[in-house]
């Protein structure tokens, strides 16, 4: 009879970005999301060009179980809280940005906090499993998923239709399975959608401006793709 694997605790393991125990983060999942529809962005810097700040549009705001509200962006191969982007090479979060009034800020807007708290109180779900889907929002920023077969030098870009939040707090990007598509346009909740992470060919997320440059074979964009592949 095989021996049982030892059970390891996260209590003594610290997340390098938040400096909090992983056990604490595990107990503080996202419980509600709200799409960002007013064009708010995040600003970030990187070590390659320290004199510049770069911007990325926010996808949504997420309410954690402890009441904290964080901005969410597709970043490399995951949807991540903005304040966890803290890698000198790939980017370091510098704050939220409202281009309309040229304002930099560091906390979620009050109207989004109120929206999330009110919705969470109204939609107080009782779920039977961690995998149960409790919410799905459309992608409003033109996110694309890059898919590439192992060893292949070509990529396929697929539009992200929606994002599903499960009872566990995990958020999945949903793509169209063309073989199962029956009606158009494909809307959130369609039976032809599948989670990007379930595909062995999924590599990265790109926002629409970069995705369009890749589609047009822009030299700088293609060079960036090569660097990502080499680092994978």
Structure in words:
A hairpin with a 4-residue loop joins strand 13 (162-166) and strand 14 (171-176). This protein folds into 2 domains: 13-124, no CATH class; 134-232, no CATH class. The relative contact order is 0.13. The chain is built from 4 helices and 16 strands. Helix content is 17%, strand content 33%. Strands 2, 3, 7, 8 and 9 form a 5-stranded antiparallel beta sheet that branches. A 4-stranded antiparallel beta sheet has the order 1-4-5-6. It has a 4-stranded antiparallel beta sheet with strand order 10-13-14-15, with no helix packed on it. It is α+β, with helices and mostly antiparallel strands and 232 residues long. It has helices at residues 22-26, 110-122, 208-215, 219-231; strands at residues 30-35, 41-45, 54-57, 60-64, 69-75, 78-81, 86-87, 91-98, 103-105, 133-138, 144-147, 156-159, 162-166, 171-176, 193-195, 202-206.
């Amino acid at each position: 009879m095989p021996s049982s694997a030892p059970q390891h605790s996260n209590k003594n393991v610290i997340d390098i970005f938040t400096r909090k125990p992983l056990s604490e983060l595990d107990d503080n999942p996202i419980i509600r999301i709200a799409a960002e529809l007013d064009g708010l962005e995040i600003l970030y810097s990187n070590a390659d060009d320290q004199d510049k700040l770069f911007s990325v549009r926010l996808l949504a705001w997420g309410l954690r179980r402890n009441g904290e509200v964080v901005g969410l962006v597709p970043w490399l191969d995951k949807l991540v809280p903005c304040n966890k982007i803290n890698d000198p090479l790939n980017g370091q979060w510098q704050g939220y940005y409202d281009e309309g009034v040229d304002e930099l800020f560091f906390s979620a807007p009050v109207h989004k906090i109120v929206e999330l708290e009110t919705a969470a109180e109204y939609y107080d779900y009782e779920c039977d499993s961690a995998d149960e889907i409790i919410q799905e929002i459309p992608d409003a920023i033109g996110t694309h998923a890059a898919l590439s077969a192992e060893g292949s030098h070509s990529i396929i870009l697929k539009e992200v239709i929606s994002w599903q939040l499960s009872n566990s707090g995990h958020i999945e990007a949903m793509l169209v399975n063309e073989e199962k598509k029956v009606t158009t346009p494909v809307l959130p909740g369609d039976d032809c959608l599948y989670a990007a992470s379930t595909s062995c060919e999924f590599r990265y997320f790109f926002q629409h401006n970069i995705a369009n440059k890749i589609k047009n074979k822009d030299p700088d964009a293609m060079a960036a793709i090569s660097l990502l592949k080499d680092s994978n």
